[in-house]
Amino acid sequence: MNEDKFLVPRDVYLKSGIHIGTKFRTRYMEQFIYKTRPDGLSVLNLQKIDERIKIAASFLAQYAPEDILIISRRENGWKAVELFGKIAGVRTFAGRYPPGILTNPNLDEYTEAKIVLVIDAWPDRNAVLDSVKVGIPVIALCDTNNQTNFIDLVVPCNNKGKKSLGLLFYILTKEFMKLKGKLKEGEELKEKLEDFIEE
């Protein structure tokens, strides 16, 4: 794959560690693993990461921003998720997802969504299971150790690192805004990559 077809230069991807997986790998994630290093860490395929971010952006762009819900139990993703929400007008949950908010209309926090994106299918499993109950598609950021049951679109990446999550949401925001016609081709976001990364 040609380097200039990547959404950001390869070295930006590499610096963020977006491709560095864990020592544990599930058979679900094997198709996205490029190799296993001598220290036992699995390395994700950059090309597949890049392709899946593009697919995720165009999948999300088919929905009105208010119909999208993004959930991050993992603290390293809070800043990135909230900034994406603010720029794109998308609803976000940074912190513990209250079970039932997608399924129980009697709850104060009850909310309707047409698509859900979770940062990690394991800590965010309540949101995944609620989405399945009401028939909402789920996009999940998955590391080498994730299971992928109930996930409609897997985006392989290091879903634990601040820099990796910051970069992913920076790219996703840019692509989403372009597809929504809010950013012209070649135009950059006012926000910088650093703005998406937890201190």
Architecture overview:
- The radius of gyration is 16 Å and the shape is globular.
- The protein has a single domain (3-180), classed as Rossmann fold, CATH 3.40.50.
- The protein has helices at residues 10-16, 46-61, 78-88, 125-134, 162-179; strands at 33-36, 42-44, 68-72, 91-94, 115-118, 138-142, 153-156.
- It contains 5 helices and 7 strands, in the order αββαβαββαββα.
- The strands form 2 sheets. The chain has a 5-stranded parallel beta sheet, sandwiched between helices. Strands 1-2 form a two-stranded antiparallel ribbon.
- It is of the alpha/beta class.
- The mean pLDDT is 95.
Sheet/helix structural class = alpha/beta
E-strand count: 7
The CATH superfamily name is: Glucose-6-phosphate isomerase like protein, domain 1
What is the CATH class name? Alpha Beta
Strand content: 5-15%
Supply the CATH architecture.
3-Layer(aba) Sandwich
- Estimate percent helicity: 25-40%
Global shape: globular
Note the run of SSEs as H and E: HEEHEHEEHEEH
Question: What is the overall number of helices?
Answer: 5
Strand order of the biggest β-sheet: 4-3-5-6-7
Spans of at least 5 consecutive residues with low confidence:
none
Radius of gyration, in angstroms, nearest whole number? 16 Å
What is the overall pLDDT average? 95
Could you tell me the CATH topology label. Rossmann fold
